[in-house]
Amino acid sequence: MNERGPDDTAEMPQPTLFSRIIDGDLPGRFVWRDPDKVAFLTIAPIRPGHVLVVPVEPIDHWLDVPGGLWADMGDLARRIGVAQMAAFSPNRIGLIAAGLEVPHCHLHVIPIESEADLNFASADTGASGESLDAAAQAIRDHLPGAAPA
C-alpha cells in the first residue's frame, strides 16, 4: 500500500516508453544520467530546450515517488533550469508534473516567455533531430556534471 491507498501503481507490467529510452532500447538526447534519475529532451518540445526529468524506476504517479528521490528530481530540475536560462535566455523556466502522457513520473522543465507557453497543444511534433541535438548540447554546455553527448 502506498501513501495514496491500496491501488499501488508503482509496479508496471511492461516497460514504459521512458524505461525503453533509459535502457537504450529507444534513442534519447540525455543531458543528465545517474543511478536514480535521468533528464532528456522531449521529441515534441513546447519550446526549444524542453527537458523531461524522469526517475529510473518506472513510478507512475508523482505522489508515489519517495521523498528523497522527489527532492533530488526537484534539485536536478532547478540545475537544468539554470542551464536553460544561460543557454536560451528565456523570461522564466516553467515546471510541470502533469503525468498524463506516459505512465512514468516526469517533470517538464521548459524555457518560457509567458504562461501561454505552458500549453501542450503547442508542442512541436515535427522538431528536427538537428534542433533537438543543438538544444541538448546547449544545455549540457551550461550543466556541470552533464551526461556526455
Automatic annotation (TrEMBL):
One of its GO terms (molecular function) is catalytic activity. A motif (Histidine triad motif) lies at residues 104-108. Residues 17-120 form the HIT domain. Gene3D superfamilies: HIT-like (3.30.428.10). GO terms for biological process: nucleotide metabolic process. Pfam families: HIT. The active site is at residue 106. It comes from the Bacteria. This is Histidine triad (HIT) protein.
